[in-house]
Every structure is written in C-alpha cells, then in structure tokens.
Hints:
Radius of gyration: 20 Å
Shape: elongated
Low-confidence stretches: none
Mean pLDDT: 87
Structural class: mainly alpha
Order of helices and strands: HHHH
Strand content: under 5%
Largest sheet: none
Distance between the termini: 30 Å
Amino acid sequence: MDDVRALLDDERARVVTRLAALTADHDSVVAASLDTNADDEHDPEGATIAFERSQIGALVRQARAHLAEIDDAVGRLEAGTYGTCEVCRCAIPEARLEARPTARRCVDCARMSP
C-alpha cells in the first residue's frame, strides 16, 4: 500500500502544479484584457478572451475535481477500503487501479453507472 500512497501523492503533486499553471494562465488572460478596449469578438486572428477564460476555467474545474478524487482515494486508503468497489464490494482489478488509481468501482459496475 506504500506504493499506492506514493502514486497518489505523485499524482496530487502533478495536479497541484498543473492547477497553479492554469491559474497563472487565467490571471494573465484577465490582466491582458484589463488595459484594452479591443473588440475581440470580431477579431479574425484567433480565439476571444472570453473563450480563453472559459476554456481555462473548465480546465481549472477539472483539475480541482481530480484533486478531490485523489483526496478521496487517499481517504479510502487510510480507511482500508481502497481497491474495493463501492457498489458490489468486490476487489477492483489491479490493472484498473494502475490505469486509474482513483477508481471507486470495478470494471463491471463502472460500465453500469450512468
């Protein structure tokens, strides 16, 4: 289980780093738009500032959700329930946990979920 904890800790560190970079990107986009009157809605050169802010915002939400999944997996590890399907209570296959260390469900139950 030490290997699992190390894997989750490494994944958490990667996501925290990514979240910091995304937050910096968002701040840069916002700062760049503060000092301009540019009508980027009609700029044929690329994406609008609103689009960029929205896209970065979506990535930030995904990163935060993934952090929550990692924290939940650490909680399950500490509670002794990591690797047990939350639906059928069977063991989650090791290959699934390697591919997706935050998995809460076995493959069969994951297929059935909405």
